[in-house]
Amino acid sequence: MKLYKKDPEFYGRVFKLALPIAFQSLITTGVNMLDNIMVGQLKDEKITAVAQANVFIGIYHILCMGLGMGASVLVSRYWGMKNSPNGNKEEAGHALKQTVTLMLRLAMGLAAIFAVVTAVAPKAIMSIYTDNPEVMEYGANYFRYSIPTYFFLGSSLVTTIVLRSVGQVRLPMYVSIGAFFVNMGANYTFIFGHFGAPQMEERGAALGTLIARIFEASCIMIYFLCVDKKIGFKIKDLFLKTRNLIGEYFRICIPVLISDGILAIGNSTVASVIGKLSDQFAAANSITATTQQLSTVMIQGVCQAGAIVTGQTLGSGGKEKTQEQGWLFLGLGFALGAVSAVVLMIICNPIINSYSGATEEVKNIARNLMTAISLIIIFQATNSIMTKGVLRGGGDTKMLMVADNIFLWALSIPLGYIAGYVLKLDVFWVYFFLKIDQIVKTGWCIIRLRGGKWIKKISTGKKTDNNNNQKMIAAIK
To answer: What φ, ψ does residue 316 adopt, rounded to 5°?
Structure first.
């Protein structure tokens, strides 16, 4: 049990995957931050409206992450089997394509549901997060221009995760860089009414994001369907028969979707608690949320690298090696959490001060929140790399789903509600209790890792003879 050892090959492999993913996350966060900062030149109510509307859109984003990361568990394992002398290459390759087909169908189905709900009841959605009629109206304006975004965001997001699972990390990064500049230009044009365009303010922010998402999805899907040779997925594969894999897909992926869905609903509930405490608290939280995202991009990269490396190592037959790597990932989590805490404190004031439209009261609340976030992020980094990376990559998705339920709904949200509404504590303690599950979950991850039961068997769903099946899953027996 070593949290660190001199292993250049392991760390090189991790950061070769993590760095492009982290940079892409940075660019994606930058797209969201552009909306906040540019709308932040207007007034508090519009800052709050855009931030709260994006909380709901973020539910779809997290659900798609769940679909993509759940599929990534299978894709990474099948990719390891396909490239292992012990694996059945043809079966693994076919199962990989079936996984992608199921994932894309589910993502587009979810997009349709969210689009309909957003179109039918934008103000009702906003009422979940705020009691202020003006904020509701601005949020509804933002939603009306965001409806098509679900389809483009979903397709590009889940496909990007699949590409990363087979080592294709650079193209999505380059596309995200392009999307960042597209969004910057569109926001500048439509929020403020430049180059002869109408001044659309919060609606312009939504339109700018939509244009960027169209650009991003077009580039990713054209590459995936027409250029990529590793997976070799074509348009005709969208019509593949997938019945034989549905059971395995649901066993591994649906717990991830539920787990991330619970996280999305939990985040939405947290935002509701914060939003209804006061408009100032809500505006301050929107500022700090973006800052927090900027400081954790490397953590997100290592999370996904952890799932990919774990899945591929197990697929090629390295159970003992996987267990050893799990402890190294735990050490990385503690180290990156500490670094992120320092980064937060460094960038805190420059980011907060960039919101020139925010009142001084909002800025002071944001600074207090940053103190709490800097403490929590050490634990958040550690358990995120384990739960969303290593343990998930090992196939331990059902247990993770149960843990997410218990820690969030039985601990964080009740304590946060009591701290805010009953005890009326300072914002530091309200936020601390809303995020206390991050601390408890870290301890649980260490116990789970030590037990070794997190490494699960995965098959391709094909009925093969015993000898072939023995070879195919020898890596995880």
So the answer is: -95, 0
Over residues 52-71, the pLDDT tens digits come to 888 888 888 888 888 888 88
pTM over cut 0.70: yes
Within 10 angstroms of residue 151's Cβ, the number of other Cβ atoms is 19
The count of residues in the chain is 477
Mean pLDDT of 183-190: 89
Match 């979707």 to its residue by tokens: 257
Contact 215, 149 (CB under 8 A): no
d(CA 65, CA 15): 21
pLDDT (0 to 100) of residue 32: 66
Tens digits of per-residue pLDDT, 94-130? 888 999 999 999 999 999 999 999 999 999 999 888 8
Q: With bands split at pLDDT 50, 70 and 90, how would you rate the model's confidence at 473?
A: very low
Rounded Cα–Cα distance for residues 33 and 153 (Å): 17
355-393: pLDDT as tens digits: 777 788 888 888 888 888 889 999 999 999 998 889 988
Q: How far apart are the first and last CA of the chain?
A: 21
Query: Which one has a higher pLDDT value, 81 or 271?
Result: 81
3 state SS for the chain: CCCCCCCHHHHHHHHHHHHHHHHHHHHHHHHHHHHHHHHCCCCHHHHHHHHHHHHHHHHHHHHHHHHHHHHHHHHHHHHHHHCCCCCCHHHHHHHHHHHHHHHHHHHHHHHHHHHHHHHHCHHHHHCCCCCCHHHHHHHHHHHHCCCCHHHHHHHHHHHHHHHHHCCCCHHHHHHHHHHHHHHHHHHHHHHHCCCCCCCCCHHHHHHHHHHHHHHHHHHHHHHHHHCCCCCCCCHHHHHCCCHHHHHHHHHHHHHHHHHHHHHHHHHHHHHHHHHHHCHHHHHHHHHHHHHHHHHCHHHHHHHHHHHHHHHHHHHCCCHHHHHHHHHHHHHHHHHHHHHHHHHHHHHHHHHHHCCCCCCHHHHHHHHHHHHHHHHHHHHHHHHHHHHHHHHHHCCCHHHHHHHHHHHHHHHHHHHHHHHHHHCCCCHHHHHHHHCCHHHHHHHHHHHHHHHCCCCCCCCCCCCCCHHHHHHHCHHHC
Tens of pLDDT, residue by residue over 412-434, are 889 988 988 889 888 888 888 98
CB–CB of 340/381 below 8 Å? yes
Question: What are the residues whose beta carbons fall under 8 Å from the beta carbon of 154, sequence distance 6 or more?
Answer: 60, 64, 107, 108, 110, 111
Domain boundaries, the chain: 9-467
Would the pLDDT of 472 be above 60? no
Backbone angles phi, psi at 147, to 5 degrees: -55, -50
